[in-house]
Amino acid sequence: MVITIDGPAGVGKTTTAKKLAKKLEFRYLDTGAMYRAITYFFIKNNVDINSEEMVANFLDLLELEVDFPIDNQTKIVLGNKNISDDIRKKEVTDNVSKVSALEKVREKTVRLQKKIVNNNDFVVEGRDIGTVVFPNAEYKFFLTADYDVRAKRRSKDFSKVDENLQIDDIKKDLIERDEIDSNRTLSPLKRAEDAIVIDTSNCTIDEQVDKIYNYIKKV
Ligand code: DC
């Protein structure tokens, strides 16, 4: 069974998906981590994302290992280096929207996502999971929250990788990133028509996990 959780940055998708997967004894896949890993790889190799040829060549060279242990975060290894923390840094965050809008990048990641899930029990989180990657998923959820709450949550994420940023700057970045993610031609951030919307502005993580869990279990 596949359960999709989509929504913008900072609504608590990752933590919710991880906890929900644990409760259901499913695996969990963070697709944003894959776009972040490709962004990291492009930055380290000075790939000009305006050059289709260069993007295609480097995507061919990319050896991305995605590990999705039960009950733990998606682990990303690039050429023997565990980059799971590096991909959370600001340098990557600032560039990931542009990289994830590239057709070749999306083709590669979506193919990989389908291969990983391969009819197993998974909670998959991202932006286009319920609309494009798994349109036939059994349960689809779309999380939202207001910008101030999202900025505060992102600030905590950044501090975990030793980056301390101003809340107002984070909020501005979130607005900009939503704009790019929602208006790109390919797989924009959009609620699937059959997705259940959950506003997480006033929820604790446990409350949002319970809401989803109870819905699935029809409690
Ligand atoms: O969830 P996140 O912040 O780690 O996602 C990083 C970026 O990747 C975000 O700007 C949008 C993009 N993304 C995407 O385009 N499609 C997905 N399925 C997941 C993430």
What this model shows, in words?
The protein has 219 residues and is of the alpha/beta class. It has one domain: P-loop containing nucleotide triphosphate hydrolases (Rossmann fold, 3-Layer(aba) Sandwich). It has 9 helices and 8 strands. It has helices spanning 13-24, 31-44, 52-61, 90-100, 103-117, 129-133, 147-160, 167-183, 205-217; strands at 2-6, 27-30, 64-67, 75-78, 81-82, 122-126, 139-144, 196-199. The strands form 2 sheets. A 5-stranded parallel beta sheet has the order 2-6-1-7-8. A 3-stranded antiparallel beta sheet has the order 3-4-5, with helices on one face. A hairpin with a 7-residue loop joins strand 3 (64-67) and strand 4 (75-78). Helix 2 packs across helix 5 (103-117). 37% of the residues are buried. The chain binds 2'-deoxycytidine-5'-monophosphate (DC). Residues 9, 31-32, 35-36, 96-97, 100, 126-129, 177, 181 line the site of 2'-deoxycytidine-5'-monophosphate.
